[in-house]
Specification:
This protein is α/β, with parallel strands linked by helices. The chain is about 30% helix and about 25% strand. Helix 3 links the parallel strand 3 and strand 4. The longest helix has 17 residues.
Length: about 550
């Protein structure tokens, strides 16, 4: 694998609409998106997204407008994403698991007046409010038959069936945006505040996809199967866009299931995949079978690595590479398939990025000493433009002219990087970044809770689990199972704490702030309640 690999169109055509146009011209009849029942060629999706772009334009969506997209993984999501890019509008993908105040924040903060949404999510929006949204474009039918079946809270808003967009012309929609224009605002978990909207240019999206092409050595004849949702950067850009960049076929995978993964790989004849570390661990923990290596998979990108990665490679007969990155700062490290060890997250891609490991005063530390990783691109636009509507957050992140990642890394003498911990109060659970503050807000809404602190604890599946240390109202008999039941309709399933500990008071500093680091260091105790051990399983 070469770090100098460049997709065929080079670095002068870095907008999604240019890339798709070239693919439709060069590989128009080749499959791009494959679902459970059928495939769509590059020409199919190019035509469909033209119709979506023209249909949205007729409804008043213009260049620069933010548009919320809350859809399940389907070809309509791809068409909406590409259609918005052709218009020069700004896609705001919404995690389909969000509920309550977190969903309300994303809807309101985006300032979007139009939302493309599946009918199954309308009740959630009715419960939290539609913000500035004036018009819904609905996939999956109108609930109960429009307009009478609409939730009363949304009845005043315009609504259009998604199919109406597909009745528009499939002629090219305008000249498209510039490569430096916004393509998306992606919401990532806040650490000391609400979720932050990260402003992404077309160049940054292209760079993320290009990085995955390099890491997996994707080729036009690959079938790329990765169970990552399209509302995430890794699913949309790391799978669908990466496949488009090279002209490969991407499979719209169903939600990850360790039991279904290998049958799906075999059924689709998949040759490449992208797995979160927790996913790889779940696959590895399955009972061994004689035919484990009898599968078509050749290459896997696993982030982060699991300690048994060499045994994983032997057992399933595949090569593995890895990396480290985030929505804000892209993918500044690379490994080859010849991994340095089972803990590395690669080396810096020095032709495109600078990475330093620094102390609290931003002074570089020597090899072997952990510190915060700070990033700077060698080419413009490879990292985020900034935080949506929050220039103060942008300035803080870019202090001393380096983008501060909030991740603690270590570099060895050979230049290999290692992830050590997170320096901020975010929790990383099975690929999802979770704001501790947002979880705390929902917990304290319970009438029997006075206050709480949410912290990460190590997970046996790699990454972290969510732990809540809760102070109940005096005299209240707070039941952790009942608290879980209270939280279930209020937040995404992955945010709900696995561990709950009931305490009389929280540790505090002299100025009255909660000493979270004390709780993190203490971790689980004999009095900690474990939701999974109690047999409570959450639905996605």
């Amino acid at each position: 694998m070469s770090d100098r690999f460049t997709p065929p169109e080079g670095r002068d055509a870095q907008t999604l609409h240019q890339v798709l146009a070239r693919r439709a011209a060069s590989r128009g009849d080749a499959p791009w998106i494959t679902g459970e029942a059928r495939s769509w060629t590059y020409r199919d999706v190019d035509s469909m997204s033209n119709r979506v772009a023209n249909g949205l334009g007729a409804l008043g969506v213009a260049k620069g407008d933010t548009v919320l997209v809350m859809l399940p993984d389907c070809v309509e999501f791809i068409a909406a994403w590409c259609g918005l890019a052709k218009l020069g509008a700004v896609q705001v993908p919404v995690n389909t698991h969000l509920r309550g105040s977190v969903l309300s924040h994303v809807v309101n903060d985006s300032r979007a007046r139009t939302m493309i949404v599946h009918a199954r999510f309308l009740d959630r929006l009715a419960g939290v409010g539609a913000g500035r949204v004036e018009s819904f474009i609905v996939l999956g039918g109108m609930p109960g038959g429009a307009p009478g079946g609409w939730p009363a809270a949304l009845s005043r808003l315009e609504h259009t069936p998604f199919g109406t967009l597909l009745e528009a012309s499939d002629a090219p929609a305008g000249d498209g945006p510039a490569a430096t224009d916004l393509v998306a605002v992606l919401y990532t978990s806040g650490t000391t505040g609400p979720s932050k909207g990260v402003m992404i240019s077309h160049i940054q999206a292209y760079e993320y996809a290009r990085s995955v092409v390099e890491l997996l050595e994707l080729a036009p004849d690959d079938v790329y199967y990765a169970p990552l949702p399209l509302f995430h950067i890794a699913g949309q850009w790391g799978v669908a866009y990466a496949a488009c960049l090279i002209g490969a076929q991407a499979v719209l995978a169903r939600p990850f299931s360790a039991g279904a993964y290998w049958p799906d790989v075999r059924r689709h004849r998949a040759t490449a995949t992208f797995l979160l570390g927790a996913m790889a661990n779940f696959l590895y923990q399955q009972p061994e079978a004689e035919d484990d290596a009898d599968n078509p998979l050749e290459r896997a990108l696993v982030v982060p690595l699991l300690p048994e990665i060499e045994a994983f490679k032997r057992r399933f007969g595949c090569l593995v590479s890895t990396t480290w990155g985030a929505t804000e700062f892209n993918v500044p490290t690379r490994s080859t398939f010849n991994l340095a060890n089972d803990r590395t997250c690669g080396r810096v891609a020095e032709d495109r990025y600078e990475v330093r490991i620094v102390d609290a005063l931003d002074r570089e530390v020597p090899p072997g000493v952990p510190g915060e990783a700070v990033v700077r691109p060698r080419e413009p636009w490879l990292t985020m433009i900034g935080y949506w509507g929050r220039p103060d957050w942008t300035v803080a992140a870019w202090r001393n002219l380096w983008l501060h990642t909030g991740d603690m890394l270590m570099r060895d003498e050979e230049g290999n990087l290692y992830f050590v911990d997170r320096t901020k109060d975010a929790i990383r659970r099975r690929g999802e970044n979770i704001s501790s503050m947002e979880v705390e807000q929902e917990i304290v809404a319970h009438p029997d809770v006075v206050e709480c602190a949410v912290v990460p604890v190590a997970s046996e599946h790699t990454e972290q689990e969510v732990m809540a240390v809760v102070v109940p109202r005096p005299g209240a008999a707070l039941d952790p199972a009942a608290l879980t039941e209270f939280l279930t309709p209020r937040m995404a399933y992955f945010m709900i704490p696995r561990y709950v500990e009931i305490v009389d008071e929280l540790p505090r500093t002299q100025t009255g702030k909660i000493r979270k680091y004390t709780l993190r260091e203490r971790g689980l105790t004999p009095g900690t309640w474990d939701r999974e051990a109690a047999g409570i399983r959450l639905r996605r």
